[in-house]
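Sequence, please.
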């Protein structure tokens, strides 16, 4: 799943603005309302971290208790997100969005006036419920508002908001906590949300035609009960007087989640299609990234406690020390995605995991008088290392799934990430409860706090070192450019010793040197004519000097013409909707479009000098039918499965 950082999105801002200009006034107002909603709910997720020490002091709770404001939030989101497909099939889009923001506003008021921690936690859980409804709605409505050929721009705008909010959230929170107090964070969110409800009710149009899916109450109940039981057991495991209670809760939670999984495997329409985890690479990605998110968010809860209660700095300093990691981490996620396309996964994740492992050890070495500059620098490099893992791992894992199950894989992935955040935060923060057992005799409050945060950092380090070991053992390039050689010897064709062959077969030996190409200034009408004339399923698109700049297939054309958009995939869930636009009207719009409007921009290609087996692996792993072949950055031919079969026939003759 691709994540745009704030730098990347800002670089595309002029292009995105052009797409917005093409919308009607009503549509622009709708986009503005949706973006404010996305900003509020995403900002709310990261706004609280620097305020946690102040909340602990005001409400007289310890770190193990206050972490529920983060882990509980993620847990509720994990339960609500899979229900969005059901909700869209039962309620209008305007009612869902307005209702979600209204609930968010009410929950923020509850949190702002909370007289004690349980009421504050209740407000936070209600916020999470609203977030679980609103964020998928934002993605869905943006796709419906923007014309089909401009939807990439619409998603870029959403991505800008999602990347911007976490980068500024902690810094803004630190300043507000020091100046007006932590309750004002919720007051601001409540006021803005209330205003948004009024605007949204007038600005948003209704969209209908979503597929109705059944609501399986037993599945939802099993999922919620199992995760709460397991999470609570982990949370109290270090502070309970008897280990019997937490152990019992953990066992019961694990058993209930096992029953939930069994039920999903045997349902025709499951709440969560866990079958996607049977794919090895996807399963590896989910597990590794889940632990990465757990360590990152868990350390984000403990770090403010360490900076404020041990080093003695303010909430403002806490927020500013976390800002570089958020900003640079987001930027590196975009860079890592581009490097993955060129070099494959293994080199990136090995470098990222090595950096992450070293910085996690450095965190463990933090003392009671460590400079805040050192803390900020280590946390920044740690965040960069983790982001160099998450984006390539996301792409590597999703690429291993068949296109027909990508939407289900996204739902499973998103749910497990929230589960990882919840459980990881609970585990890491619960380690602070062991401080009395490890602190020196007669330790004061600061020494006890330091001992607790030190133990939490050790727990984070252990998790990340385990992730590093798993990456080295299980994450390999298979068929990607730059990594295909690692697959050699695993079922690939060995031509050594074959009569008449004194070297490995190259792509140039088997490619079609007369493959048709399409100019970048062509229209879709031109593409259809050339596809029909050449009886091919896809065409490389080249610029004026022959450089590859896109690829258009018959599938791209059919996707535009289809009455049902089929599968809309985002990082939250899967929705199906029916569009009302007349077929002939869509056809007329399509024929005159520039072909680059519907073409794939990020095209898999291979060099003519590459070994043929590398191309075989790439076609197989990526599940594609045709590869443009390049030489000196210019298209010189194409390689299709038909070409490979013809080559295999020649090989068979030579062997025979």
């Amino acid at each position: 799943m691709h994540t745009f950082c704030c730098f990347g999105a800002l670089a595309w801002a002029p292009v995105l603005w052009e797409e917005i200009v093409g919308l009607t006034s009503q549509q622009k107002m709708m986009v503005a309302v949706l973006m404010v909603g996305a900003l509020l709910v995403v900002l709310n997720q990261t706004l609280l971290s620097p305020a946690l020490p102040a909340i602990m002091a005001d409400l007289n709770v310890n770190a193990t208790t206050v972490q529920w404001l983060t882990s509980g939030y993620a847990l509720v989101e994990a339960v609500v997100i899979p229900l969005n497909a059901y909700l869209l099939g039962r309620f209008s889009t305007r009612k869902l969005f307005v209702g979600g923001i209204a609930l968010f506003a009410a929950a923020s008021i509850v949190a702002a006036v909370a007289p004690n921690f349980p009421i504050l936690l209740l407000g936070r859980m209600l916020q999470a419920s609203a977030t679980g409804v609103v964020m998928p709605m934002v993605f869905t409505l943006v796709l419906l508002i923007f014309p089909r050929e401009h939807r990439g721009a619409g998603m870029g705008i959403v991505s800008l908001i999602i990347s911007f909010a976490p980068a500024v959230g902690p810094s803004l929170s630190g300043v507000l906590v020091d100046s007006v107090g932590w309750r004002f964070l919720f007051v601001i969110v409540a006021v803005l949300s209330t205003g948004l409800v009024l605007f949204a009710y007038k600005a948003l149009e209704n969209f209908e035609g979503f597929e109705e899916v059944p609501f399986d109450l037993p599945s939802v109940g099993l999922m919620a009960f199992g995760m709460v039981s397991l999470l609570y057991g982990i949370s109290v495991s270090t502070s309970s007087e008897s280990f019997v209670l937490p152990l019992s809760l953990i066992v019961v939670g694990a058993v209930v989640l096992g029953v939930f999984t069994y039920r999903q495997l045997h349902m025709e329409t499951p709440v969560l299609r866990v079958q996607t985890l049977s794919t090895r690479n996807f399963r590896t990605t989910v597990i590794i990234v889940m632990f990465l998110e757990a360590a990152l968010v868990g350390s984000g809860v403990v770090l403010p406690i360490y900076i404020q209660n041990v080093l003695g700095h303010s909430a403002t300093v806490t927020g500013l020390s976390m800002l570089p990691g958020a900003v640079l981490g987001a930027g590196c996620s975009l860079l890592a995605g581009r490097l993955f396309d060129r070099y494959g996964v293994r080199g990136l994740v090995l470098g990222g995991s090595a950096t992450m492992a070293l910085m996690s050890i450095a965190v463990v070495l933090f003392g009671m008088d460590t400079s805040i500059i050192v803390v900020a620098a280590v946390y920044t490099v740690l965040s960069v290392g983790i982001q160099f893992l998450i984006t390539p791992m996301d792409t590597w894992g999703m690429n291993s799934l068949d296109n027909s199950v990508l939407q289900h894989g996204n739902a499973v992935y998103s749910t497990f990430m929230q589960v990882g955040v919840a459980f990881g935060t609970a585990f890491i923060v619960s380690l602070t409860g062991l401080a009395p057992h490890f602190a020196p005799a007669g330790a004061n409050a600061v020494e006890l706090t330091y001992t607790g945060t030190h133990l939490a950092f050790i727990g984070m380090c252990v998790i990340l070192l385990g992730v590093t070991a798993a990456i080295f053992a299980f994450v390999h390039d298979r068929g990607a450019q730059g990594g295909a050689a690692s697959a050699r010897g695993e079922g690939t064709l060995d031509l050594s010793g074959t009569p008449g062959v004194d070297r490995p077969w190259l792509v140039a030996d088997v490619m079609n040197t007369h493959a048709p190409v399409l100019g970048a200034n062509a229209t879709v009408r031109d593409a259809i004519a050339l596809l029909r004339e050449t009886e091919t399923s896809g065409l490389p698109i080249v610029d004026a000097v022959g450089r590859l700049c896109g690829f258009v297939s018959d599938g791209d054309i059919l996707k535009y013409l289809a009455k049902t958009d089929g599968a809309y995939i985002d990082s939250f869930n899967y929705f199906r909707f029916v569009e009302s636009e007349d077929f002939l009207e869509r056809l007329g719009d399509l024929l005159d479009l520039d072909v680059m409007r519907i073409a794939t921009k990020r095209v898999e290609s291979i060099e003519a000098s590459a070994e043929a087996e590398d191309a075989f692996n790439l076609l197989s792993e990526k599940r594609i039918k045709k590869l443009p072949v390049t030489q000196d950055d210019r298209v010189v031919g194409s390689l299709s499965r038909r070409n490979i079969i013809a080559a295999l026939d020649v090989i068979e003759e030579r062997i025979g």
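The radius of gyration is 27 Å.
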